[in-house]
Amino acid sequence: MTTDQMTRRQALALLGKLGGSAALMQGAALFGLARPANANESSQPTALKPAGQGGPKVLILGAGISGLISAYELTKAGYQCQILEASHRAGGRNFTIRHGDLIDELGNPQHCQFDNEPHLYFNAGAARIPAHHTAILHYCKELGVEMQLFTNHNKNCYAQDPAVFDGKPVRIREYEADVRGLYAELVAKSVQGKSQLDQPFDDIAIEQLLQFTQAFGDLSADMTYQGTERAGYLSGGILSHGKLKQPRALADLLRSNFVLGAMHFAEIADQSSALMTPTGGMDQIVNALLKQVGSLVQLKAQVKRVQLLPQGVEVSYFANGQQQTVRADYCLNCIPSHLLCGIENNFPEPYLQVMRQLRRGKLSKIALQAKERFWEREQIYAGISWTNQDITQIWYPPHGVFKQKGILLGAYSWDPDIVDRISALPHKERIELALRQGEAVHPNYRQYIEQGNSICWQRMNHMLGCGAVWSDELLERSFSVLQQPVGQHYLVGDQVSFHPGWQEGAVRSAWFALEHIQQQELKKRSAV
Amino acid sequence: MTTDQMTRRQALALLGKLGGSAALMQGAALFGLARPANANESSQPTALKPAGQGGPKVLILGAGISGLISAYELTKAGYQCQILEASHRAGGRNFTIRHGDLIDELGNPQHCQFDNEPHLYFNAGAARIPAHHTAILHYCKELGVEMQLFTNHNKNCYAQDPAVFDGKPVRIREYEADVRGLYAELVAKSVQGKSQLDQPFDDIAIEQLLQFTQAFGDLSADMTYQGTERAGYLSGGILSHGKLKQPRALADLLRSNFVLGAMHFAEIADQSSALMTPTGGMDQIVNALLKQVGSLVQLKAQVKRVQLLPQGVEVSYFANGQQQTVRADYCLNCIPSHLLCGIENNFPEPYLQVMRQLRRGKLSKIALQAKERFWEREQIYAGISWTNQDITQIWYPPHGVFKQKGILLGAYSWDPDIVDRISALPHKERIELALRQGEAVHPNYRQYIEQGNSICWQRMNHMLGCGAVWSDELLERSFSVLQQPVGQHYLVGDQVSFHPGWQEGAVRSAWFALEHIQQQELKKRSAV
């Protein structure tokens, strides 16, 4: 193995993974190290029974997706809700950044200077919703959030790897066509070169295997790979014969990290077509929820103390320059566990122990405003280019096609070492990094970029991290410790799911708590 | 081979092909029989030089895409254009059907009864635009046509084949995950079971080949396939461990036509991500062109006679109950060649000969109005399900997500025998066919469908066919005969391209003629 080559674990650390900590789990899926990714749990919450007059009071700590959904469902059933949110905005990691928005990174606060146009935004956190995430989609539907298609996979995007092809960007289309073709040719040779008995495929009709192999690789009649229109033509095709591109060598292709990792990214259940995203930005979901329960949200209210009472919960918080204390029958606590365990509390020790062991993912994104949508001239209208530089990915917006300007995601990184490097840079230097590395993918990149914004979630005020990262061992041993309430206190959010980093985890964690509260209420009533 | 199994040519005839005659060529691409599919020709037309006062008169026969584009470019340069269109509408095979529209099939005219809602339409002809079709996209951009993503491939759609799995629909996600996994396992066995010398892969690093194989199939650490989250979980995944689905047997999977054909459909250059479609229907392109040149179009004007003159062209047509005759300096003739050769003319014999040999593709679509978007409950929001019944495909609309009703494409057939069978049915029986066969893909399908529309292009008035079908031999020998003008008469349209059935072929054919006219004009002027 040359030094360009990587072990499976190393490749995993660099590519094939994605946002948040779900992140790490998703990447793992590429290599058969996977933990759960999707589900077919019920697509609707249990309908809460009306709480009756003077319904129980529920205090919700955090106005992210799990908190807002909880308030929405509870108020529909007559519970009295109050939401305390530490930061200046609701939504949590559902955060769409536009003109004027504050990115409240500690030591590095930025105001977004993008032009004030509806299509000039980027989703700094959650950005895509797989079709099987039925819980979050339930609310998109119920609240009338307009949806459009999203795609990770676009054959016209590039893969770039310094280790192969002189570091030149190569269209994913060409990678895929050649790898399929050459791999299929190898298989065909292997199958055809042996007597029937010598085959490991005794129970498979060899003819069908060859037919599949031919269709898979677009092999010629003689079962060799001679290039394919799938790779796009070198020239011609409409008014003259298309000229095929020359295939690359399989040995070279297989030296590329892309082929060993990211090429299979859109096979992952959560990353595969059809994906969707709200038209106009992911925060359309937050806005729709705020229309329902916005009046219950108090911003800039920082929780200082959580006390479990024999019945209910007492919370002290700091807001408007004063400390205040409130009591409630129930508390749904969405504060990130690694912060929560450092807030004054009287939680039982085993509960705290798990919180203290639960790590957080790191994630950074850099968004760039382009004065010209140069990628459209390169026949790119959505999807992701991959590079194994620190920027890792470039995303092209699927919206605002043909407009003058657009927002590129110029970097999306989740490898902890990479994110630490990016996080250690002041804003300007991050942009410079994105420009410099982006030029390996798009020559002359820099000339099109007017300005940028960056976000490192582990430096974000009141968050200090992305999704929870459960080790296998901790998940097995202690998930239910955090999932179960202590008294009337519930820890919720995507952190209390097998799917952190996804809104689906947040919603289902809330649904779990709501159902549990309902059980407690029904017990109380039947006891009366 | 059992009778379930098909030869490559047979499989080709049934699946893996698509609309029009480009159709046949595209399908062929699956099996290495391909002709050209895309191109990197210039993405802009040659700018026509101003024609000056009293610019030359150009008569355009047919208001499809090639005719409208021609008129748009020519009038910009000061040419005087007149467009005669035989049918009651402009657009040709760019035809979006909505409430009240007439589908003018001979002997089977229908008025569309879909509810009068903006999202309740279907694209009866052109429906998708690949990102490399830069000529038609040039106009979408220039004319401000709003675009959105489109996808053929959606892992949540189904493949259904009576020959396998008791004819039950299987998610494409499961097909793909299992086929990749089991195929990879076979390769791994084959590679690992041999001494290095025995390998056909001498020049490939075996370790990398195995790494790729593992990532490709999502194999376990021991290089066996044990199922994968890529197939979607049987249960759980968000609040509990996801339970993997049991893989199917490779022998069964390989007996499916889907695996041998359509599974590779979205690898075809013209069918691969990212595809786009105009928001609100493909005819937004026609509408944008009509805003520019609509006043030049005379509908219901049927050409009866085309005469080449020593200078120019004379055309007689029937309109408003009368025959009229006009002369022009140039004629751009978009009339389908198989009809044109039956109109009185004085074309040279070799020109006519080619027209007489040029066949037409057949294509039918059946659209169904669903009173409920039941597919969304099945986690489907776009894409295509495949079946090897006559209906061949079911398309789910990528627009109007979460609205009450939607229009499904309940059948999309291009195999000539199949289309002949559908074409021979009265409208009502076509709908019944779509419902009956659709129930093999979606049980209870029928209960959701309120009404439908059907279109068989070979019965469409003034068209009598879909895209041109060039045999290899005819294309080699005679393409340039039709592409070159006779005198001042140019045959244009997608029929005069290597890419019939696509708007890209229509636009580039027009561009070819326009550039030729420009050359003639420049010669004339320099001669003066």
UniProtKB/TrEMBL annotation, chains A, B:
InterPro entries: Amino_oxidase (IPR002937), FAD/NAD-bd_sf (IPR036188), Flavin_monoamine_oxidase (IPR050281), TAT_signal (IPR006311). Its EC number is 1.13.12.3. Pathway: Plant hormone metabolism; auxin biosynthesis. It catalyses: L-tryptophan + O2 = indole-3-acetamide + CO2 + H2O. Residues 65-512 form the Amine oxidase domain. Keywords: Auxin biosynthesis. PROSITE patterns: TAT. This is Tryptophan 2-monooxygenase. The lineage of its organism: Bacteria, Pseudomonadati, Pseudomonadota, Gammaproteobacteria, Chromatiales.
